[in-house]
Design a protein that fits this description.
By secondary structure, the protein is α+β, with helices and mostly antiparallel strands. It is built from 3 helices and 10 strands, in the order βββββββαβββαα. Strand 2 and strand 3 form a beta hairpin. Helix 2 (146-154) crosses helix 3. The longest helix is centred in the last third of the chain and has 15 residues, at 161-175. 25% of the residues are buried. The mean pLDDT is 96.
């Protein structure tokens, strides 16, 4: 059953987050204004090395006041493909260069309230090129064995949707390889 959109208007806009009111009508005839958060899209990289380890960053998120492991990720810039953004973010945030990247999974993590799209790539580790140029992203960077990822999820050490989607699909991909 599809909702009908009669119009929309911005309430607040800036380069990172936009709040809109959308005039919608539900299939039962009820009509009302729904809040929608419009965000720039996100690229995520699951960087894997030849020892079946994943490069992750230990970082603090002030909004939830929590520490957790995350994959390199960031907003897709104008004129950039999702793959280019994922590769750029890996190097900026970790100092590692990507040898090759391919799409792993696509997701819309909260499509009942936001239009955010997450493009997740599996990337092959290339060379370490130097310290991260983005110095405000992480407390430490580590190669995590794939075998440890499930336990980390269970202990809530990996909680961001982009990281969860990437790590879980990586594990599924590895488990179902022929």
């Amino acid at each position: 059953m599809q909702w009908e959109v009669h119009g929309e208007r911005p309430i607040y806009e800036n380069p990172w987050v936009n709040l809109w009111l959308v005039d919608v009508q539900q299939p039962d005839g009820r009509r009302w204004e729904h809040h929608v958060v419009k965000l720039r899209h996100l690229a995520v990289a699951v960087l894997v090395d030849d020892q079946k380890r994943v490069l992750m960053m230990w970082r603090h998120r002030f909004i939830t006041d929590t520490w957790a492991w995350e994959l390199p990720m960031g907003l897709i810039e104008a004129g950039e493909t999702p793959e280019q953004a994922a590769v750029r973010e890996v190097e900026e945030e970790t100092g590692w260069r990507v040898k090759a990247a391919q799409p792993l999974i696509y997701g819309q993590p909260a499509n009942g309230i936001t239009d955010s799209e997450h493009y997740v790539f599996r990337a092959e580790a290339g060379a370490y090129v130097g310290p991260p140029t983005e110095v405000n992203e992480t407390d430490r960077i580590e190669w995590i064995p794939m075998a440890d990822l499930r336990g980390m999820i269970d202990r809530r050490e990996i909680v961001s949707s982009g990281s969860l989607i990437g790590v879980l699909y990586l594990l599924l991909d590895e488990a179902t390889k022929g």
